[in-house]
Amino acid sequence: MHASLHLRRRRSTVMVTEMKRASVQEELRKNPQLKQEDIDAMREWVETQTQLPDITDLTLVLFIHCCFYDIEIAKKTLLKFYNFQYNVPQICLNRDPSNEEIVQIAKAVGIVILDGRDRNGNVVVFQRLIDTNPACYNMDLTVKLSHMLSTIWQLENGTAQGTVLVYDQRGFGLSHMARGSLSSLKNMIHYVQECAPINVVGIHVIYTNAVIDAILSLFKPFMKSSLYKLIKTYREENLQEFYNIIPQEVLPKEYGGQQVSLEELSVLLQKLVTIS
To answer: Residue limits of the CRAL-TRIO domain (predicted)?
Structure first.
């Protein structure tokens, strides 16, 4: 643990006031494996960790759940999460939705958490460039926006059985990767596989090409094999394989789905973050 970790003074928050909130009672009903005594044990341990900020019981539930109810692993993951919050301020601090950088990246990158589920009941997070101009892209800000939206969703809905990440890569290329850095790439991967209080069970990359395949190969050295094996790619001609996993009807209308367009969904989520 970093000796100078003082999150009480540098705490990163997304304020949530005007929306429904998930509750521990709902989580106990939803997850039979979740036990109040495990939450109490985590709470007792957290109180001994004076370097940590105030942590709600719901947050403890999220970590217990994502660690498959192994309390010791949940403790380690929670510490990694707050270390990440402290050590990667470009992603975790100053998460103000009215900040001009956040406003602009939200216009350039559409990130939505779909209402529907995949065929196994997992939550689907969908991402695609809205503005394909590389000058409008920033990897750190994209991860920050995704982090903010995920936080809001979990505060509203609590745990999810699993999370599937979908990336539509149309318009994305090497010029966009150049807008990031090696440290940005490593931070993004580290957060997903070591810190985030979610269970990623699938990563689907659609509309790929040779350039996207080359970009994905850059990820491999920094990813655990278990996570890298979750990546499935689809050319335009074999999208039906993707729709066999993610029902087409839960997707935005430009994908033949029943939801409004990705851009409209993105605007709705931006408003949700703004009023929170």
So the answer is: 102-263
Rounded to an integer, what distance in angstroms lies between the CA atom of residue 172 and that of residue 131? 10
Helices (H), the chain: 24-30, 36-46, 57-66, 71-87, 89-92, 100-108, 139-157, 174-177, 182-190, 210-219, 225-228, 239-243, 262-275
| Count of all residues that appear for the chain in the document | 276
Closest by Cα among 204, 200, 206 to 254: 206
Cα-flanking dihedrals φ and ψ of residue 112, to 5°? -135, 150
Question: Are 166 and 204 in contact, with CB atoms under 8 Å apart?
Answer: yes
Report how far apart, in Å, the C-alpha atoms of 58 and of each of 39, 65, 151, 157, 197 are. 9, 10, 12, 10, 11
pLDDT 10s digits, 47-105: 999 999 999 999 999 999 999 999 999 999 999 999 999 999 888 877 777 788 888 99
- Angle among Cα 54, 60, 66 to the nearest 5 degrees reads 140
pTM: 0.88
d(CA 110, CA 129): 6
Cα dist. 191→46, 81, 196, 199 in Å?
Answer: 21, 8, 6, 12
Q: Nearest 5°: phi and psi at 128?
A: -155, 145
